[in-house]
Amino acid sequence: MTNKQPFEEVVSQHGRTVLRVCRAVLGSADADDAWSETFLSALKAYPQLPVDANVEAWLVTIAHRKAIDVTRGSARRPIPLAEMPPGPARDGADDRDLDLPGSLAALPEKQRFAVVYHYLGGLPYGEVAAIIGGSVEASRRAAADGIANLRKARGTIQ
Amino acid sequence: MNTRHRDTDVSDLIGGSAPVTGSELRILHDALAAQAESAGLLDVAYRTLDTTVGTLLLAATSIGLVRVAYEREGLDTVLEGLATKVSARILSAPKRLDDTARQLDEYFAGRRHRFDLPVDLSLSAGFRRTVLTYLPVIPYGQTASYGAVAAAVNNPKAVRAVGTACATNPLPLIIPCHRVIRSDGLAGSYLGGPETKRQLLELEATA
Lengths: 158, 207
Hints:
Chain A is mostly helical and about 160 residues long. Chain A is built from six helices and no strands. Chain A has helices spanning about 5-25, 30-45, 55-70, 110-120, 125-130, 135-155. In chain A, helix 3 (about 55-70) packs parallel to helix 5 and helix 5 packs across helix 6. Chain B is an alpha/beta fold and about 210 residues long. Chain B has a four-stranded mixed β-sheet, with helices on both faces. In chain B, strands 5-6 form a two-stranded parallel sheet. Classes of the chains: A mainly alpha (about 160), B alpha/beta (about 210). The interface of A and B includes residues 40, 47, 101, 102 and 119 of A.
C-alpha cells in the first residue's frame, strides 16, 4: 500500500484488539479511558507515521504507555469522592487494584504484558521486547512463563 | 505455527475477559470523534446520507464542506482520496455535517432552492475552480449549456474543459453542475449517472 489509509479504517481494523489489550493489562474500569487516550494520541501522530509501519504494533505501544501511566499513577488518578474514606480501601497485589480478568491479575507485570501483547495484541516477540524492554528471548521466556502460570492457576494440564 | 489455535487457547486461559461488543466499540468511537473535534485533530469529518438519488457521502474540513460523493464513485475510494489529498485524520463524525444533511433533505423535498453552507474548494484548482465558482449563478430550475458556461467565464473555446470541471466537481448538488447540459438540450453525463441528472432537473422543474 502506497497511501495512508483514512484513520477511520485504523479504528475499525484495530479498535477491538486495542480494547482487549487495554482490558487485559488494566482491567475493564480503566480500559475505556486508555483506549480513548491511545487513539487520540495515535490520531495526533498519524500524519508522521511511516506508511509501511506496523500499525497494530504502533497502537499497542501507545496503549502500553497509557497503561504504564495508569498503573504507576503518574497520570491523573480518579479523584476520590468526598464521602469515601481515605487510604487503600480495596486489597490487591498491586499498589492499585486493577480488576483484571481472571487469573491475569496473579501474573507478574512483565509476564502479563508479554502474554497480552503477544497473544492478544498479536505482536511478534521482537515488537514485544521493544515495548517492555529487554531482549527478544527474555520476552519469549516471560510469555512462556506467563502461560505456564496461567495453566497452573487454571489447574489444567494441556 | 498455529497462531489462531494458540490465541483461542490463551483467551480461554485468561478467562473472565468479556468479549468486546460492536456497540461498546461504537460508543468508544463516537466519544473519540467528539474528543478529536474539540482537540482540533479532526481534519476531515464525514457521514453518509440516504436520499432519493441513493446514499451520499458528505465530508467537511474545519473550513467547510469539502466533498459530496455519490455511491457509484465508491465510498472507500472517495475516503482514500480524501486521506491522500486533504488529510488522513478522517473519522466518521456526523455532527459537523448536521446542517449539510438538513439542507440536502430540504432540497430533495423541494423545499430548498439554494444552499447556504461554508465550502472548502481545496480539491479544485485553476480553471476548474473558476468554473465551479461560477456555477451557483445558474438559478434553481434553469439550465445552461457547456458552451454558455465557457463563454460566461471568458473562455468560450473551453467547452470540453467546462465538461471536465463538471465531471470532477468535488461538491455535486451543492455546486449545481447538474444544471449544465448539452447544447442539443440533452442532459449529458453526470457524476451521479445520467439518470440522476434527469431526476434532479425534473425535481427542480416541478418544485
